[in-house]
Amino acid sequence: MIFEPSRAKAIEKLNYFIEHNLSEYSKLRNFDFGPDNRSNISCLSPYITHGIISELEIIDKSLQKFSFTRNEKFIQEVLWRAYWKGWLELRPNVWNDYLIELSNLNNKFKNEQNYLNAIEGKTDVECFNQWVNELKKNNYLHNHTRMWFASIWIFTLELPWQLGAEFFMQHLYDGDAASNTLGWRWVAGVQTQGKHYLASEWNIKKFTNNRFKKIKLNENAPPKISNKSYSMIQKKFNNPENIEKKNLLIFENNLSIEVSELQRYKFKKIYIISNKNENRSIKLSEKVLKFKSLLIEDQQQRLKDKSIDCEVIDISKIKDVEDYYGLYPTVGENLDYLDLNNLKVEFLYRNLDQFSWQYCNKGFFNFKNYIPKIISKFI
Questions:
Q1: Are the CB atoms for 356 and 82 separated by under 8 Å?
Q2: Rounded to two decimals, what is the model's pTM?
Q3: Are 135 and 200 in the same domain?
Q4: H or E element: which one contains 313?
């Protein structure tokens, strides 16, 4: 399974999926047929995470093929990431507390054999071991498999969900603070208090076409308990009335600036920000760092092809840039660096985020009621 780090390849993958596989998506999306057969899903998430292609771009193309009613499940899945991001923006301390908890747990578990067996794929659960190896090799797992994996990690192996979320972030090409952290919280039962996700032998066998035999799980575990609750903060995501001709910083989550709504503005220079492990709380694998680096190079080349002045700089060099806007990086490692180093950035926000995040104050089932309204706003 290969994710080629370019916008051209992302568009190619999108077009092929819509033309050949979108029609069966709703029926087949929950099946994991193995890493050599992903025809039932789009595999676009590594590109969406980095802004190589946008959610609206994908939805627009899908609606050119099928009606909203026929497309609804696919569109909902595309917008899950936007929802998670909005939810976390309104409760950023969930991320802050997670990093504190993670640091404490790493000190406690770094030499614990059960944990080491889990991250090395040497447990007594055959399917889990295979998924560990698949994750490290391909830097991707099917969404249903991620749920099974997290459930086994938490309830069968009895390991902290925070360490599992870190393991995913280290190896997934599509890892981001919101989707990853909140997804693991949901499986554990602390995102929606008292509601957890328990993997079961019959479910894994059914949706993997009986590829695994030895599946002995704890299918009766209670949800994890958290005594923390998070109130929503009051935050505005407004752009300046007049966007002036300044420099622009873009981060690893918005790497197609030349086809975004900001393309109509003239910036002095675009700085593409690279963030290496020394400035990250969660140290990413070399393969994930390389993937990000190649996507940044691809963005730089596309800007140069349009004769747009641009430069790739390390995040530590932002202090040397003057008179700039920053395209908002969302809650996560890049925003943490800006805050920790007291870098005051005037942010610009994507139109989709500005409009959709107002509906992220409750659960996704509430959010999805507004999806037709969100689509009609932009498409």
A1: yes
A2: 0.97
A3: yes
A4: strand 310-314
End-to-end CA distance of the chain: 32
Q: For residues 153 and 201, state if they share a domain.
A: yes
CATH code, domain carrying 312: 3.40.50.620
Q: Is 212 among the domain residues?
A: no
Q: Determine, yes or no, domain membership for 374.
A: yes
Task: Calculate the CA dihedral of residues 283, 287, 85, 314 and round it to 10 degrees.
Answer: 70
Give me the pLDDT at residue 38, please.
Answer: 96
Domain that holds residue 167: 105-207
Which has the closest alpha carbon to 182: 54, 82, 282?
82
Give the pLDDT band of residue 71 (cuts 50, 70, 90): very high
Same domain as 159, residue 68: no
**C-beta neighbour count of 144 within 10 angstroms:** 18
Q: Are residues 116 and 191 in the same domain?
A: yes
DSSP for 83-103 reads: HHHHHHHT-THHHHHHHHHHH
Task: Assess contact for 272 and 311: CB atoms under 8 A.
Answer: yes
Within the chain, where are the H helices?
A: 7-20, 25-28, 45-49, 55-65, 68-89, 93-109, 113-120, 126-138, 143-151, 161-171, 177-188, 201-207, 286-305, 333-340, 351-356, 364-367, 371-378
State pLDDT tens for residues 253-272. Answer: 999 999 999 999 999 999 99
In a domain, 215, yes or no: no
Joined together, the tokens standing for residue 273 give 């920000």
DSSP H or E run through 249: strand 247-250
**Confidence band of 66 (pLDDT split at 50, 70, 90):** very high
Sheet of 310-314: strands edge to edge?
Answer: 310-314, 270-274, 247-250, 324-327, 346-348
pLDDT tens-digit series, residues 85-132 = 999 999 999 999 999 999 999 999 999 999 999 999 999 999 999 999
Indicate whether 109 and 203 sit together in one domain.
yes
